[in-house]
């Protein structure tokens, strides 16, 4: 999948360093 500048990143899920599942969308609007 190719993204261009300004494209919305697709949501995905991964494990953090403690094994907890997190999604990209969990961080939407946070900086």
UniProtKB/TrEMBL annotation:
Entry superkingdom: Archaea
SUPFAM superfamilies to which the protein is assigned, alphabetical: Thioredoxin-like
Molecular function GO terms recorded: antioxidant activity; oxidoreductase activity
Compositionally biased spans, kind Basic and acidic residues: 1-11
Gene3D superfamilies listed in its UniProt record: Glutaredoxin
Annotated region described as Disordered, given as residue ranges: 1-31
Domain Alkyl hydroperoxide reductase subunit C/ Thiol specific antioxidant: 5-30
Family matches, as InterPro entries: AhpC/TSA (IPR000866), Thioredoxin-like_sf (IPR036249)
Protein name: Redoxin domain-containing protein
Species, as recorded: Stygiolobus azoricus
